[in-house]
């Protein structure tokens, strides 16, 4: 598994701040609607939907919002029809980027995403040009910043729960599972650890080290702009930024 980066931890903390501001409600609602449409509105029979409902609760999304999103997906309420699709491309310095999107107007979204890439030192590529560099995995985050955990106890618990791998850096543990085992592993850890996130993610098999401050700025700028786009559900990239470079950026 690719090494856990300093940027990954900062991204996790940024996501928690965004959640506090309610920025993630719209994106989770879209995912819930799409899941209910494709796999049904019963969370007991739809593991993906169950996971999304848990994520909605974690960011304090009102239950009424969740119910409306499910009903839009099942057709009980009228709603916008969203199309799910992916774009692949390269950022500054050739960083591979895989973008998951959901939009009610694919042509508009395509033009906007293409503009972001071209304006900020990247370019969109053909389908499949970077997907092979990533592996779809379940990913569970345990943040021990405020509630420290014992690493040895965590390692034992992770293995017993059926996870494949775990990495710990800066008091944040990232646990990797087979996508089909994500919910089972999560439930196996709940009693002893506070889980701050659990989702299916695209993990880079190898990472590109960005050891130049200016290049790192450009890469992070494009990542931020893509993640802030209303139609972008997730952005995955294969870069890693060393701690000394991140510290310079933070300063």
Helix percentage: 40-55%
Low-confidence stretches: none
Tell me what the CATH architecture of the largest domain is: 2-Layer Sandwich
Mean pLDDT: 87
Radius of gyration of CA atoms, rounded to a whole number: 18 Å
Q: Could you name the CATH homologous superfamily of the largest domain?
A: YebC, transcriptional regulation domain
Overall outline: globular
- Structural class comes to alpha+beta
- Estimate what percentage of residues fall within beta strands: 15-25%
**End-to-end Cα distance:** 30 Å
Largest sheet strand order: 3-1-2-9
Assembly state (oligomeric): single chain
Fold topology:
Elements: H1 6-20, H2 25-39, H3 47-58, H4 63-74, E1 83-90, E2 96-103, H5 106-119, E3 123-124, E4 134-143, H6 151-161, E5 165-169, E6 172-177, H7 182-189, E7 195-204, E8 208-209, H8 213-228, E9 232-237, E10 239-240, H9 243-250
Parallel strand pairs: 8-10
Antiparallel strand pairs: 1-2, 1-3, 2-9, 4-6, 4-7, 5-6
Helix pairs in contact: 2-3, 2-4, 6-7
Structural account:
This protein has 251 residues and is α+β, with helices and mostly antiparallel strands. The protein has three domains: 6-74, Integrase, N-terminal zinc-binding domain (Arc Repressor Mutant, subunit A), CATH 1.10.10; 83-132 and 206-250, YebC, transcriptional regulation domain (Alpha-Beta Plaits), CATH 3.30.70; 133-204, Alpha-Beta Plaits. It contains nine helices and ten strands. The chain has helices at 6-20, 25-39, 47-58, 63-74, 106-119, 151-161, 182-189, 213-228, 243-250; strands at 83-90, 96-103, 123-124, 134-143, 165-169, 172-177, 195-204, 208-209, 232-237, 239-240. Strands 3-1-2-9 form a four-stranded antiparallel sheet. The protein has a four-stranded antiparallel sheet with strand order 5-6-4-7. Helix 2 (25-39) runs parallel beside helix 4 (63-74).
């Amino acid at each position: 598994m690719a090494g856990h980066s300093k940027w990954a931890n900062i991204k996790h903390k940024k996501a928690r701040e965004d959640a506090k501001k309610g920025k993630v409600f719209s994106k989770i609602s879209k995912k819930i609607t799409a899941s209910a449409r494709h796999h049904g509105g019963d969370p007991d029979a739809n593991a993906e939907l169950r996971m999304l409902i848990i994520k909605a609760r974690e960011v304090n999304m009102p239950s009424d919002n969740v119910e409306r999103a499910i009903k839009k997906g099942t057709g009980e309420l009228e709603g916008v029809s969203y199309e799910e699709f992916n774009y692949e491309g390269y950022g500054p310095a050739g960083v591979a980027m895989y973008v998951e999107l959901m939009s009610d107007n694919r042509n508009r979204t395509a033009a906007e995403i293409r503009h972001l890439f071209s304006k900020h030192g990247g370019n969109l590529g053909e389908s499949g040009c970077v997907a092979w560099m990533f592996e779809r995995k379940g990913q569970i985050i345990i943040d021990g910043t405020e509630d420290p955990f014992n690493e040895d106890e965590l390692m034992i618990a992770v293995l017993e729960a059926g996870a494949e791998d775990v990495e710990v850096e800066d008091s944040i543990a990232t646990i990797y599972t087979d996508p089909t085992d994500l919910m089972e592993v999560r439930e196996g850890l709940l009693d002893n650890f506070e889980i701050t996130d659990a989702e299916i993610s695209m993990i880079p098999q190898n990472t590109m080290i960005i050891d130049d401050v200016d290049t790192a700025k450009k890469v992070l700028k494009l990542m931020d702009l893509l993640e802030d786009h209303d139609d972008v559900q997730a952005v995955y990239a294969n870069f890693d930024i060393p701690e000394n470079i991140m510290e310079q950026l933070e300063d």
